[in-house]
Input
Amino acid sequence: MKSFYRILIFIFLLNFLNFNNSFSDEINKIKILGNERISDETILMFASVSVGDDIDDDKINLILKQLYESGFFNNVNIQFENNILNISLIENPIIEKIVFKGVKAKKIKKPLTENLKLKNRSSYNSIDLNHDKERILSTLKELGYYFSKVDVFVEELENNKVTIQYDINLGEKAKIKKISFIGDKIFKDRKLRGVILSEEYKFWKFISGKKFLNEGMIDFDNRLLTNFYLNKGYYQAKVFTSFAKLIEDNEFELIYNVKAGPKFYFGNLSLKLPTDYEESNFIKLDKLLKKLNKKPYSINSIEKILEEIDLLALEEQYESVDVQVIENIEGDKLNLTFEIVETEKYFVERINIFGNNVTQESVIRNQFEIDEGDPYNEILKNKSINNMKNLNFFKKVDSVVRDGEGFNQKIIDINVEEKPTGEITASAGVGTSGRSIGFGVSENNFLGRGIGLDSNINLSTETLKGKFSVTNPNFLNSDKSIYASVEALETDKLTDFGYKTSKTGFSFGTNFEYLDDFRFGVGSSNFYEKIETDSSASNNMKKQEGNYWDSFVNLKFDYDKRNQKFQTSDGFRSVYYLNLPVVSDTNTLKNTYDYKYFTELYEENITTLSLFLGSANSINNKDVKLSERLNVPSSRLRGFEYGKIGPKDGPDYIGGNYISAVNISSTLPKLFINAQNVDFLAFIDAANVWGVDYDSSIDDSNKIRSSYGVGVDWFTVIGPLSFSFSQTITKASTDQTESFRFDLGTTF
Output
């Protein structure tokens, strides 16, 4: 019992002592020693302490922590005696200069210096130095230098200053030798390579940076692959892993592990509306939902539905709505309910844009579907972000929506990371129609105004063409695009067509979206032209020798309902062109209509139906110029030599006043499992060219030309190689046929 009381007494005394120690004293005076550059006032601010404050052990520890966290001090010692707080410290050195050795190229050096903690004239500390070294190594990896080494040297100078030197050995860039796909990939490797940004290293791709290993690009590739499968019906698709395997030296194999899962189809798609909404206002949407029934699942289709809901809601002034997509799986069917719910109404208080060091803010704001003061709409905000991404000016576009200062107000913060927008291109090709070579330089964001500049020159067997163009996609901060160009063209057709022409001139115009998916364009083209004829040409052709001035008004009507611009698998596009003469020596009125319909009949099959019509007629009964007469494009009539069908004047083919063409083509199932780089297609072509202005004795056979055949697209190590084998069905006696055609070429 006595021992128990002794324990109680001991615990009491201990608590008493601790209680007494917990009392704090008041600071009557503060002494600061050791500071040379940093004032006493600044130190007291960092320490959050002043005369009159109470102090204890916890307060002293807090002061120590805050002074060290400021990054200005290498050592801090604090003592409290006789109500005096003594702060002794040693300042970190000042960085006089940061030097990078081993790197001279601006395109490498600039990203290395970004996002470093230590900078010139800042305070030095070893922790931030280690951080910066790792940051430099990480950036070098992102640039493709996987084998780089970085050594750091710190030189102490007078007056507590230092110089930091990074010695960088870049090493060889990590090349992507091979790109492979494992798992239940379903599609050809070549097809999947076309989806991602990373590219296999080829010697002709000396400009492209996509052929080098880049971790950031791999992550983006994963997202692209996932979205590709999600749009092909694979609702549960995932890219589980992606990794780089070292093959030899500086060459890697990039491997993507794909888990596609089963293919799903849209089942029952329904719309659920608030009770006070008129169902008749959403009939259009109901038809769209029924159209998708039993079709393969596609995330793009869902996004289109959400966009359509948003448009209908805005039309009916249902501004504050949200859409909840309720999913239900039944076998391979995915049933979806799109439930529209009313939400609290918010307004856009402010839109902030950060990170645009080159691109002018007005260019970015022109991409927004909503403006400050408008009702806030999530879908329109997302559409605005997509518009910004489509500019192709930025590596990254992020957005944050936060509460505003006023009642029911939202602030939208946009953060962008810009990227280089200049491009150099070169091309070369050879085929049965001759050889070609080209070179071009372009800039898509000139002076940060979103203005596009493009210059190119192309040389082929018959033609030499040079062109320079300027495009402003947001003229006067509107949604209207304007363009202007100058060009020169020389075409030598003396051998088979009896004439030679040289043209110089300029064009300008505008185009804009008039309605959803419908664009309208109006412009003017103006050319000076000189025509020369061969000595053996007919008198009718020789009459056209001389100089011409032609000025046209150009109209374009473009209705585009394709599911995507590239690798289209569904939808159609209808385009009508009208060239109306204003001031012209021949006054030729030209009309062109081009229609293409795409559908996917089965997996990996794309069937295309196209219709092409054209006419060229003088409105004052003069002869249509030789250079303005029409020929069927070679892609529209395979099995025949280009330009060598239709009306003739003696030995020369002169083209016609009218052309028409119908084409059906379909990709074929893969014939060989290992033929990853080969595509096969079957086609049927039918076309005609007819009409001669000046002499009825000239052959004007109004006979339909037709052919059928198969084609092969082979993606070789030196570029895409295309073959077509054709057999004519119907032809005229004067037509020149071509059963075999090939083209080999690449852009690099």
